[in-house]
Amino acid sequence: MTTKSYILGFGSYAPERILTNTDLESLVDTTDEWITTRTGIKQRHMAAEGETTSDLGAKAAMNALASAGLAAKDLTHILVATCTPDAMCPSTACLIERKLGVSGLMAVDLNAACSGFLYALNLAQGIVAMNADAKVLVVAAEVLTRRLNWNDRSTCVLFGDGAGAAIVSARPNEGRTVEIADCLLSSDGALGDLLLISGGGTSIPYKHGDSVGDEFFVRMEGREIFKHAVRSMARVCEELLTRNGIKREDVDMLLPHQANLRIIEAVGKKLDIPAEKVFVNLQEYGNTSAASVPLALADADSKNMLPAGRTILLTTFGGGFTWGAALLRT
Ligand code: UT7
């Protein structure tokens, strides 16, 4: 991409309510020990009754605006990555626009499951390349706990609710540069059946008065996804580093999708990036799908872990299948 693009600010939000592994022991046949050793997750946040994806997204957006030193009226576009929108229509992006108290923006949702943030970031790069004055709000928000089957211990212990946001522009902030140096994204629709929430759309519609079935909730083949996730994230990272002429030892931070600590460790190992350079916060949030990478970025930023002069490698994997990687330079 010839026009450069920059992140002006990061923001995140997670609901107040916390569900610990110990809380889950009284809901399903599981243990803190199993969840901790198999996934690394210790707790997850859960939206309150009536709290929606756009509520979380709008709060993350406001935090990103504050971090960028901007007001909502400065925005020109809103891209929202989610697979748990408030509704089929209107879009969560339009609902966030309304909650930010603005109008007249281009506002649209996109669904690339857990990879949604990186997909939206790449689309934001395209928008600022076409319009040098654009200020694109990229939000990734999920309330996956409403789409979990609480009778399925193999999935319900994994996910949590949250939102992350970033503002993308063709020019950096004064005094701080976070360049989106490159993005590489991919997908394989043939593997879609391994991870799905199929009910409620046009393929498995519900008629008025029907009760929802298991298809309405997350279903997945965990072990298969595990293998694909490790392989795809490691491969796409290698390709991105190679095409940018960056050696593995020059990566200062690997920030991967926060689904499972064992997946994260395996990707780090395949890339030869030592554990101390790998950012992990899934113990606090669980897998928040599209929100996981921007939530982790905002978390790292709030801990002053993104100072000037760093090369940061982001990578993600999710339903579709979709996956990708992005390079940030501070
Ligand atoms: O965001 C992208 C989407 N998702 C992912 O990235 C998830 C990828 N997959 C994973 O993270 C892992 O495969 C899981 C965490 C889902 C499962 O870990 P695993 O080591 O692959 O376990 P498994 O599915 O092979 O199950 C091992 C055992 C089974 O019992 P048996 O058949 O060995 O007796 C399961 O029934 O663990 C049992 N099990 C549980 N036990 C206690 C499954 N879930 C639980 C649970 N508590 N919550």
Q: How many beta-strand elements?
A: 13
CATH class of the largest domain: Alpha Beta
CATH architecture of the largest domain: 3-Layer(aba) Sandwich
CATH superfamily of the largest domain: Thiolase/Chalcone synthase
| Distance between the first and last residues' Cα | 18 Å
**Shape annotation:** globular
Which residues sit in consecutive blocks of at least 5 with pLDDT less than 50? Answer: none
Description:
This protein has two domains: 6-169, Peroxisomal Thiolase, Chain A, domain 1; 179-329, Thiolase/Chalcone synthase (Peroxisomal Thiolase, Chain A, domain 1, 3-Layer(aba) Sandwich). Helices cover 32% and strands 22% of the residues. The chain has helices at residues 21-25, 32-39, 53-68, 92-99, 116-130, 153-156, 222-243, 261-271, 282-285, 292-302, and strands at residues 6-13, 18-20, 43-45, 77-81, 106-110, 135-142, 162-169, 179-187, 195-196, 219-220, 253-256, 311-318, 322-329. It has a five-stranded mixed sheet with strand order 1-7-6-4-5, sandwiched between helices. Strand 4 (77-81), helix 4 (92-99) and strand 5 form a beta-alpha-beta unit. The relative contact order is 0.19. The model has no long low-confidence stretch (mean pLDDT 97). The structure holds oxa(dethia)-CoA. Oxa(dethia)-CoA is lined by residues 30, 34-35, 38-39, 114, 153-154, 157, 195, 220, 222-223, 225-226, 229, 259-260, 263, 287, 317-318.
